[in-house]
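Task: complex structure prediction.
Instruction: return structure tokens for all chains below.
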Amino acid sequence: VEASIPEPLREAWRKHSASEFTTKDEFEKELVRHIETTLARSLYNCDEHAAYSGTALAFRDRLIIEWNRTQQRQTLTDQKRVYYLSLEFLMGRALDNAMLNVGQKESARDINGVVTNCLTEGLKDLGFRIEDVISQEHDAALGNGGLGRLAACFLDSMATLNYPAWGYGLRYRYGIFKQEIIDGYQVEIPDYWLDNNPWEFPRHEITVDIQFYGTVRKYQDESGKLVHSWEDGEIVQAVAYDVPIPGYGTKTTNNLRLWSSKASSGEFDFQKFNAGDYESAVADQQRAETISAVLYPNDNLERGKELRLKQQYFWCAASLHDIVRRFKKSKRAWSEFPDQVAIQLNDTHPTMAIVELQRILIDIEGLEWDEAWNIVTKTFGYTNHTVLPEALEKWSVPLFQNLLPRHLQIIYDINLYFLQSVEKKFPNDREILSRVSIIEESHPKMVRMAYLAIIGSHKVNGVAELHSDLLKSTLFKDFVDIYGPDRFMNVTNGVTPRRWLHQANPELSALIAKKLGGHEFLTDLTLLDKLEAFVDDKEFRAEWSNIKTQNKLRLAKFIQETTGFKVNPTSLFDVQVKRIHEYKRQQLNIFGVIHRYLTIKAMSAEEKKKVVPRVSIIGGKAAPGYWMAKTIIHLINKVSSVVNNDSDVGDLLKVIFIQDYNVSKAEIICPASDISEHISTAGTEGSGTSNMKFVMNGGLIIGTCDGANIEITREIGESNIFLFGNLAEDVEELRHGHFYGKFELDPHLQKVFEAIKSGTFGDANEFQALISSIEEHGDYYLVSDDFNSYITTHEMVDEAFKQQDEWLAKSITSVARMGFFSTDRVINEYADSIWNVEPLVVKD
Ligand code: OX2
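Output:
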């Protein structure tokens, strides 16, 4: 506001202010200008990538207008805002999505069949196809898997629903690594993605100094008040980079602010420099920049590295500084902070924000402890995504003491007051105190971040019903006893139908729009239920089926281009794409494939005629240090090369490993599946979200009673899903039994193991650990217990696929019943029951 141009002088500005493209000429002019001047390329030197950059730059110039207006509007109305703190935002590509959201790209196969779009047509005039141009964009892959992608879907829904909301994250120089498969092994290639990224706006004027290390000095000020002063240590600068997030069909364009680390200006050590030690002066500088250099590539696994804790504090402190600065401008009383600010913690990664806010309020703003703590707990909400013990964050106390000495003191105080209140409630229960203490009395002592997050938040939620129930009955049971059930709730995940239906599957979106009379379902997904009326409509069914075929052809082409293997698109496409993890059980999948292979090999020519041809498609990255997951990838690739080259099998079975699975590949894969696999050991998958994407695109699923599979079943009906396997409630007893002689290897699985051990898929030693984990070490993930149920259910899938008519009916009915799984519903639930925020809708 202070830097605004005074009213009498605004005329010139208004005259030249940019507006949306209304003709292709306007677009072409800007496109050529950007290619020639911004990119310094020419008519003779303009490839698809230059065309992409030019289009992105021309288009983003337009996007910025609504973005600026939204920010101005939100500042002026000054109503409550949401801040979504996430260490991961798995955005994928931006151009296509942004064009669709602001209505500058109608699908080439629109309801009326006409293409009048200025971007598409403008590019055509210069000899480019918009699809090719779009596919030049590098994925923004600042996340590992479901948790990061959920954050990206949330941003889309928050903007679409006009919530005043900001995302806060880290601007990693390297996103999730690129995966190459060499000789069947995963090899990781760094993902340096920032060159020429047109979607970020550096805000060099917005910087925050972040302190680390040092000591705490305690003294009494003139009034006799005890003061804690955090002194010395080192300072690193956080620089803001902003990314516009356009909503679909709305004027709201929200902001994602990513922090980048830089040596603070005072940091460069001129003494060293002058003493000739230039190298060491630069090394210090580089050390500061390391903080935001790389995304930790683990999904559902925490390793307690100091740099990771540094990242967490750096990002939390910078974000809170920003939020507090914005609040202070309004000159309100501190007690109003929770009426203006809601902060959501995406897992425990941002838990330091709780401690940092308490520190700001008591040490800097001078509030009393209780008053401050009351503000803090009203402000924060915490989402838990997993019950897996290896994913629960704990930080060693000595490490904390060294890096953030004042914060550790505050944590001890939070713990003290908390334990006092517990003691009051349960006076004769010593055990509960040690169970719920934030500090685990181990060697070394550890800070339990999930407990801190619960204690510092007013709401804690899980991400699917079963998951939230398990939290309440196991992991967080004591806290339910302490706080009562109201602090704990469920918000079942969703996905944004804009990216995962409209953008990934434009043909299906257009067909649905034709039947329902428009694209309103994209912002009210429950309208899909109207599709059920057309289940028996012959023409509609034919179009539906044809779209699936086209999408399978597109994937088959992609597979041939990337792997060299040819697959028959009339085969049943069976897909499992997600991070590779023992709990997600890609090993169960590949053992099932081997079983199928052995079965086919043993068949007569007559028997083979009855087999439903199948393509098993598996994709996903393994954390670089997760050896067992890498072994699973290796086995899949070995099976692939043996099976695909076996002439006894031919088209009856093909096995494909998709390299470097990411968001943009998911957009090609999801619309092309007949069946997809969501087969985690019951009770281990928080929710799963790709299950939703596949069903939304007309694929059926095979799955366990786990995560959101259960609610998907409830919505679409039991007859439209293939469920198998043991239930969550039986898992503990089965596991326990395995260690007391109750383990019998499933006979079909035994055959599979024999084949592997005999060298059918190369050196058997390579796979020994995988087999032993089941045969000898307790089969923690119940692969053997579920194997028979898994393969017989796959036989049912084959039978069902033969009845194409019924299959089609299942596909249509399922899509019609998926309305619940939009992130719009999810965001409205968070807004109502956790954030207490209202949308800010603009009138034209
Ligand atoms: C994932 C969960 O594993 C997955 O089940 C869930 O759908 C997703 O988060 C979004 O809620 N890291 N990734 C997850 O949890 C953690 C921790």
